[in-house]
Amino acid sequence: MKINWEGVMPAVTTKFTAEGQLDLVMFEKNIKAQIDAGVNGIILGGTLGEASTLTKEEKEVLITNTLRIVDGKIPVIVNIAEQTTTEAITLAKRAEELGVNGLMLLPPMRYKATDYETVVYFKEIAQSTSLPIMIYNNPVDYKIEVTLDMFEELLKLDNIQAVKESTRDISNVTRIRNRFGDRLKVLCGVDTLALESLVAGADGWVAGLVVAYPAETVAIYKLVKAGKVDEAIAIYRWFMPLLELDISPQLVQNIKLAEVATGLGTENVRAPRLPLQGKERERVLSIIDFAMKNRPVLPAYKSI
């Protein structure tokens, strides 16, 4: 399946039972809700998916189940965030064998690689697979920035096709477009900058709160792309306090509480993460409760 690298692509959470096992029943319910809302792809194994806590076997279970659920309707993309180049290549090859449609690559983890080392890392993974690739550029959280000059070198490989743009610099969307045209697709990776990025010309949105609010997320994207920005802004303003739950070290716990509110998940996380406690839990729940009481009526966005 060809990936167009556009639209809304949820970075989905991994569902766990109270005993800490994969909750495939709730996982399937959430994936089906994403598909019903009109998302353009599913991204597995990101930070929100608690990938660092998953075993190789669990990752494969999630991949095979997602492929079964989506049944070819939308692409399935697997995140690569391994400790070594060898491990990253192994996972990339295995993902391709299992039938995934694309990869998202983080820079080297636990080591602040040089620009040269980062480019070589990405290129060696890309050369090990025929799958299309989106580079995750998040210097705020991962301390490595993929600069435009680095992309100049990376784009010599045809299967490096997109960037999850999370530098927090909106003007980077324009810089990328000016330098690379449509050769490098741009997807916003920061929920609180999504509408602004789309207006600036981003092709899509790798979203977090979408896992709890898929329809609202897709509606914003569709309205912006249809030129109905005022309608999109009205939903976005309602959404913003929720979207801010994504820019926190406890984003997983925050967003899983939102999934509970909409019936699309549980708050079970895997240690060392623990459910929110005390005043912080009360604060997050109050944000979610206010949003649920004031949830907007959406236009018929699917027909736009």
TrEMBL record:
Positions bound to pyruvate: V206
Superkingdom of origin: Bacteria
GO terms classed as biological process: N-acetylneuraminate catabolic process
EC number of this enzyme: 4.-.-.-
EC category: lyase
InterPro entries associated with the record: Aldolase_TIM (IPR013785), DapA-like (IPR002220)
Single GO molecular function: N-acetylneuraminate lyase activity
Active site: Y136 (proton donor/acceptor), K164 (schiff-base intermediate with substrate)
Keywords from the UniProt entry: Lyase
GO cellular-component term (any): cytosol
One Pfam family in the UniProt entry: DHDPS
CDD domains, per database record: DHDPS-like
Keyword Lyase (UniProt): yes
Family assignment from sequence similarity: Belongs to the DapA family.
Record protein name field: Putative DapA-like lyase
Lineage: Bacteria, Pseudomonadati, Bacteroidota, Flavobacteriia, Flavobacteriales
